Amino acid sequence: MAPISIRAVLISESVDPRCRAILEENGIRVTEKTSMKKDELIAEIKDYDGLVVRSATKVTADVINAANNLKIIGRAGTGVDNVDVDAATKKGIIVMNTPSGNTISAAELTCALLMSLSRNVPQAAMSMKQGNWDRKKFMGAELFGKVLGIVGLGRIGKEVASRMQSFGMKTIGYDPITPPEVSASWGVEQMSLEQLWPQCDYITVHTPLMPSTVGLLNDETFAKCKKGVKVVNCARGGIIDEAALLRALESGQCGGAGLDVFVEEPPKDRSLVDHPNVISCPHLGASTKEAQARCGEDIALQIVDMVKGKKLVGAVNAQVLASTFSQESHQLIKLGEAVGAVLRSCSASKKPFSRVQIATKGDCMESCTGYMTSAVLVGLLSQDSGCCLNFINVLNLAKDTGIMVNQAHYVSDGAAEGVCKVELVADGCSFKASGSVHGGIPVLLELSDSVYRQPVALTGNLLFFKASASPQLLSSVAGLPQHKCSASKYS
Ligand SMILES: NC(=O)c1ccc[n+]([C@@H]2O[C@H](COP(=O)([O-])OP(=O)(O)OC[C@H]3O[C@@H](n4cnc5c(N)ncnc54)[C@H](O)[C@@H]3O)[C@@H](O)[C@H]2O)c1
Ligand SMILES: O=C(O)[C@H](O)COP(=O)(O)O
């Protein structure tokens, strides 16, 4: 994989200064422009290869489509719901985040809200500032012995669990991916949401915002909870349905809410913020010096490592790309792309492609199974796609254009060299090619039914000439005397 060149990065939010410093130390020009409106961002983004954001910049499809040079969107933080990841993937742009940099800070704020809810700390502090001394009004309840339901048992959910266990809370939870035995090892008993709702005194959500998590707590689920349940949302606005929460607070079904995040930030509708049983923060989960230093530094280092071709860390939409950063992958990628390009030329008059079958053989090809399909498809589809094709978008493009792609790997049959065989079906005709790497150079071994006695180096410009085996014809094309030419079906 050719190194990804990043010369200019735009930072569109307040990101720790270490981010800029690290990028600049590595020869990347950095511009910081915060609080841009959408139109300003659309106008500005054209000049950059990289964009670094936090949660406030909405990197919509409009912004992405205006970004002709953009190669990376770096999120100095966890949630990427403010980035249209599908649009970025389609355009071949890497989306990268720093998912562990603010875990502890977000977990600590969640715990602070749980404690504040149990003892009315913000309301009492406000009352004191107003000159009152009201001991009765702010009667609280101990957390000790209460049940905390944690929905989403990833990084933050886990840290919240261990901290609240030290207060003597019983922690139960639900997560569709984290195995129950794993969460049990850190003291969280997993169960279905149906079982969880009625048991909880407190519920905290720690899932990403996505269609399946929008409105996890809604009118119906609130009704299944204990009367007076208290809820915390330090994940994303909308995971707890805001209108349902307000109704539950008003009816007393919900006894209090701690909110760090809102569907609209800042929220124009202040009904929740102003409710006496709600304590809220302006999205402060990651707002600590430590978290910001980690996230700012991490995103810059991840970008630099990628540019230097060292490794790819934190990419959320480029799983294939991550396996292409090893030295040995470079020649194999060239091989796949070249075999794809040869087949593209051979089948030029027979489009569209309907099926591509890729088979790799031999131990040395085992490591490339993750990216060989993408490499072949890049070679095959590059000229016709009309967009910049790369390992981030090529599988999607093949799928969108209805090309059926199969890949298989076969263990070595004793032959030392690894082989990559590709069969392409276009307009009912089949085209086949196989290649290998000899002495660091990708070579063609077979093309359709012709086997080359002398492997053909897949470098530079190649002319494939199809004719019946006739030394006279070949000598006239090559401009050489007959005795110096040998011909097969393809030469
Ligand atoms: N308030 C803040 O400033 C702040 C800071 C950091 C992160 N966050 C938010 O917190 C979220 C969680 O962060 P994390 O680092 O723990 O992420 P994570 O990916 O480690 O954990 C998320 C967990 O949610 C689980 N999940 C997915 N769908 C689910 C569902 N339907 N029901 C239950 N669980 C489900 C996943 O399996 C995963 O284990 C982020 O997506 C981000 O939006 C907010
Ligand atoms: O997802 C995150 O990382 C948090 O919500 C933090 O967002 P922020 O970087 O805008 O504070």
Automatic annotation (TrEMBL):
Domain of life, source organism: Eukaryota
Keywords of the record: Acetylation, Amino-acid biosynthesis, NAD, Oxidoreductase, Phosphoprotein, Serine biosynthesis
Pfam families: 2-Hacid_dh, 2-Hacid_dh_C, PGDH_inter
Catalysis performed (reactions): (2R)-3-phosphoglycerate + NAD(+) = 3-phosphooxypyruvate + NADH + H(+)
An annotated GO BP: L-serine biosynthetic process
UniProt domain D-isomer specific 2-hydroxyacid dehydrogenase NAD-binding: residue ranges: 112-285
Assigned EC number: 1.1.1.95
Coiled-coil boundaries: none
GO MF assignments: NAD binding; phosphoglycerate dehydrogenase activity
Domain D-3-phosphoglycerate dehydrogenase ASB: start-end pairs: 332-439
Annotated pathway: Amino-acid biosynthesis; L-serine biosynthesis; L-serine from 3-phospho-D-glycerate: step 1/3
Domain D-isomer specific 2-hydroxyacid dehydrogenase catalytic: 9-317
PROSITE patterns from the UniProt entry: D_2_HYDROXYACID_DH_1
Sequence similarity: Belongs to the D-isomer specific 2-hydroxyacid dehydrogenase family.
Quaternary assembly: Homotetramer.
Record PANTHER family: D-3-PHOSPHOGLYCERATE DEHYDROGENASE, FORMATE DEHYDROGENASE 1
Protein name, per record: D-3-phosphoglycerate dehydrogenase
Organism: Amphiprion ocellaris
